[in-house]
């Protein structure tokens, strides 16, 4: 779905109070292009971040060929985000530079690896091969307003021909993508998070796959990628709660909120586990403080506070990789950094991961990131009647928007 709708929706957000808040209803940002106080800064910032996210995903898809290295792909995606973001808002606002760039590190997770894989230069894994299932995950922000997305593809033997995809892979990919679409449509003002969880599980059951437990959809605010409100893909069992899995508190969605609609599904048990791959993605816990003892630990924390004070980062971004690897342990053990571990499924499981960003506008929920599912993902399985109805409505809405956009383009060309 196109991200153009987020920019055009700026006029939909009405005037409210002048209280400083961090969602779409903020009224106090000054757009350096418009030179006046306007909601357009918020909508345009997210629109621009969304365009960069989709551009990075498209570029990475083209680079996912036989022989490509995961490390090089992560660097390539990061370069796209940083270079494109650097072109925007180059003038200072109120005497300060507008922060912009990576909001979530580029991660490339292959086959049974579910998410969060962003390797270091010293730990490169084997290159991509034909038939590999690749999950791309990344985020961009403009002035702290975040857009994220994830996408799944299969590596082809040749760039000129589509990959060969087995039935299991087709089932899980279609299930994850459709669950993302239906979940996104279900996140609207007045509905509750457990209703979205039910929708996701209904889709998973129809396609005979499992949603990945512990994966969460999160509300996003300015410089906050994982807000308090969240949605579980499936409710934890009593056994999982005993093992440390947290139960998600019930919440109600409200207008002007922003969410990352994150769906990962598997042909396996749907129970993620850690493996041999090193955890390299972390986020500063801004509420924690501790006087670190090791020199390398103080180096890590100093760099984080300076360069990554609120949003997730990867150790690959540090100049001194060795010091970063040595120092991060003490920071994590004292709660200064929150790890995003590399999660695995069973070795023979097929995993698909799709993610998009949605805005809860007065006109309804608008999806601003995420690419169309590759058409080589096929399945003979049919979703339940309610899911079919929602998917058909979304398809008709997309067709209307495409026709309207084409007519507008034709009219503009004629004049």
UniProtKB/TrEMBL annotation:
Record-annotated Peptidase M24 domain positions: 48-210
Highest taxon of source: Eukaryota
InterPro entries: Creatinase/aminopeptidase-like (IPR036005), PA2G4/ARX1 (IPR047113), Pept_M24 (IPR000994), WH-like_DNA-bd_sf (IPR036388), WH_DNA-bd_sf (IPR036390)
Biased amino acid composition, Low complexity: 1-10
Pfam family, one: Peptidase_M24
Region entry Disordered, spans: 1-22
Coiled coil: none
Family indicated by similarity: Belongs to the peptidase M24 family.
PANTHER family listed in its UniProt record: PROLIFERATION-ASSOCIATED PROTEIN 2G4 (PTHR10804:SF11), PROTEASE FAMILY M24 METHIONYL AMINOPEPTIDASE, AMINOPEPTIDASE P (PTHR10804)
Name this polypeptide is given: Peptidase M24 domain-containing protein
Protein source organism: Cyclotella cryptica
């Amino acid at each position: 779905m196109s991200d153009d709708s987020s920019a055009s929706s700026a006029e939909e957000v009405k005037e409210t109070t002048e209280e400083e808040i961090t969602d779409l209803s903020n009224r106090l940002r000054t757009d350096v292009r418009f030179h006046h106080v306007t909601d357009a800064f918020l909508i345009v910032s997210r629109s621009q971040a969304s365009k960069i996210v989709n551009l990075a995903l498209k570029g990475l898809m083209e680079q996912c060929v036989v022989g490509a290295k995961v490390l090089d792909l992560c660097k390539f995606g990061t370069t796209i985000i940083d270079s494109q973001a650097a072109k925007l808002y180059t003038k200072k606002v109120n005497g300060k530079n507008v922060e912009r760039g990576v909001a979530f590190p580029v991660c490339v997770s292959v086959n049974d690896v579910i998410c969060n894989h962003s390797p270091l230069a010293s730990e490169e894994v084997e290159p991509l091969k034909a038939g590999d299932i690749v999950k791309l995950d990344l985020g961009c922000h403009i002035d702290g307003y975040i857009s994220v997305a994830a996408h799944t593809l299969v590596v082809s033997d040749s760039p000129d021909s589509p990959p060969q995809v087995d039935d299991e892979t087709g089932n899980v990919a279609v299930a994850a993508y459709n669950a993302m679409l239906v979940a996104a449509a279900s996140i609207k003002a007045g509905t509750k998070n457990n209703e979205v969880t039910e929708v996701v599980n209904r889709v998973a059951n129809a396609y005979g796959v499992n949603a990945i437990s512990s994966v969460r959809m999160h509300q996003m605010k300015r410089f906050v990628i994982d807000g308090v409100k969240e949605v579980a893909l499936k409710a934890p069992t009593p056994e999982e709660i005993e093992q440390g899995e947290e139960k998600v508190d019930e919440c109600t969605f409200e207008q002007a909120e922003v969410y990352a609609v994150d769906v990962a599904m598997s042909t396996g048990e749907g129970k993620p586990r850690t493996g041999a791959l090193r955890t390299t993605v972390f986020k500063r816990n801004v509420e924690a403080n501790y006087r670190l003892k090791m020199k390398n630990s103080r180096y890590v924390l100093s760099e984080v506070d300076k360069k990554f004070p609120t949003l997730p980062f990867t150790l690959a971004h540090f100049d001194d990789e060795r010091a970063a690897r040595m120092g991060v342990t003490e920071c994590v053990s004292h709660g200064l950094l929150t790890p995003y571990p590399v999660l695995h499924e069973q070795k023979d499981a097929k995993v698909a991961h799709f993610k998009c960003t949605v805005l809860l506008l007065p006109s309804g929920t608008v999806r601003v990131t995420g690419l169309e599912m590759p058409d080589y993902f096929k399945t003979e399985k049919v979703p339940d009647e309610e899911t079919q109805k929602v998917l058909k409505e979304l398809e008709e809405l997309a067709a209307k928007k495409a026709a309207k956009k084409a007519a507008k383009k034709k009219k503009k060309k004629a004049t």
